Amino acid sequence: MNRTQNESEVVMTEENGEEPKTIDERVEKEFNAALYVLLRRYQTLFGKPNENGKREGAMFHAAAPETLFRLLQDRMEVMHECFASPFNCYFRSYCSAFPDTDGVFGSSGSFFNFKPKSGSYQVGPPYTEEVMEMTANHCIELLDKAEEALSFIIFVPDWRTPLQAAQALMEDSPWTRTHFIAEGGKHSYIVGDQHLKALGTKKDHLVLPFATRVYVLQNEQAMERWGFEKEEWKEKILAELGKP
Fold it and tell me: How much is the pTM?
């Protein structure tokens, strides 16, 4: 089709007999519908505000500080988040919990169906023991099969009394190159309902009362490329987690 008009001026006729609409109008209508469904899905996940105005489910949607993602991108060439959403992702490439609502906004789907053969990834699963155990198993299985450089930097709560299964798996894995701790009360995440803040409002940060343990799982090729042989990189990561 030879178009001599601007794309937004091309008229398309609705099959149901409605007035013709421009492509821009059609896209806007479809976008608004998709956004509404997305908002309703995550509002259902978060639940209603309690007496303090907090939504309990939003805790599962908290995000690491943006400065940390910039450091991981610069230091480890991380370009993909394995647990994010259209509302809290830093990178354009990410996995999320709801492919049906999130896919149109760029989600690669569930992390557990995501099977990269190479690359460097940030992993911050929801703080439920079953999901964290599945996450550890999935990362280890991917590393077992990888023939190219593959790296995961994983952030989980340091639950050690008793030691949770995910941490036991990673600490026993030959792919774990290092792990270190961010102390409770000394690091923060961005709150999970950040997208509900007024435009231009500074993002709220939640100081985590418990410790976070950071695991770096890499095969040999990844270790050569993104290894954590220098203590200074651990300190930089801890510093970025500690920024309010």
Answer: 0.82
